[in-house]
Amino acid sequence: MYRVTDLFSPRMVSFSLISFGANLLFKSVGLFSNASIVRCTSAVVVCKSFSSTSAQHPKRPLTGYMRFVKHQRPLVVRQHPDLKVVDVVRKIALYWRTMSPEQKRPFEEASLADQAQYKVEKVRYQSQLTPAQSAALKEERRQKMAKRKATRKRRELTLLGKPKRAKSAVNIFMAEHFDEARGTTMPEKMISILDDWKKLYLSQKQVYIQLAEDDKIRYKTEMKSWEEHMIEIGREDVC
How far apart are CA 135 and CA 126, in angstroms? Predict the structure, then answer.
């Protein structure tokens, strides 16, 4: 279950924006009156101050859109207390898309001011780091980016319908006996199943070995068909 505070993470906001495609229809867009528009665009948005201690990296400032979300969320929740958290974000995102550049300007200008301040604080923070700390942070960022890229790739392949990899004999055995495995936690259950697998005679394992061979054939057949389809639609890059 998402908390209200989770709504405005980059991931949730990205989801909310993507969900607003051509097929998104709202019968009621009268959530914000003309008076509320004036209040939004004339709101005084105070720039955040960033601390630059050696123990904490300055936080990246909010975008103009995120500032608008933060400003409007309490109003939407107050007017529509029964709305689900996702629908709250959807309403706000839809209204942002209908606002004029003049209406968005206060939020975007405040974001630009924060960005300038953030850059100054970031340089100050980095100047306090030792070479070893800088190298460690660089490696940490590299790993995060690689992990993010791999996650996006997996999601894309799932959406494109890439077949699931073939299961090994022991994987099939584990899936079949997991519910009856000894132990209360996942690691305990897996250890007990592996121990049971090792105790099986080869003749007892044979049925699972055959199932694994069958699944390998299934995977190869499905992959060949999937790769041909990817070539047809111009996505050779994922094959």
Answer: 11
The dihedrals phi and psi of 130, each to the nearest 5 degrees, come to -80, 160
Cα separation, 128 vs 179, in Å, equals 53
Is domain 4-128 annotated with CATH 1.10.30.10?
Answer: yes
Say whether domain 169-238 belongs to CATH 1.10.10.10.
no
> Can you say whether the dihedral through the CA atoms of 192, 198, 201, 205 is positive or negative?
positive
* CB contact at 8 A, 8 and 70: yes
pLDDT digits (tens, 9 = 90+) for 141-184: 999 999 999 999 999 999 999 999 999 999 999 999 999 999 99
Q: Are 93 and 15 in contact (CB under 8 A)?
A: no
Q: What is the sign of the dihedral through the CA atoms of 122, 125, 130 and 133?
A: negative
Domain layout of the chain by residue ranges? 4-128, 131-159, 169-238
Q: How confident is the model at residue 118 (pLDDT cuts 50, 70, 90)?
A: very high
Q: What is the pTM of this model?
A: 0.49
Rg (CA), the chain: 26
3 state DSSP class of 118? helix
Q: Does 38 have pLDDT greater than 70?
A: no
Amino acid at 120: V
Are the C-beta atoms of residues 65 and 96 closer than 8 Å to each other?
A: yes
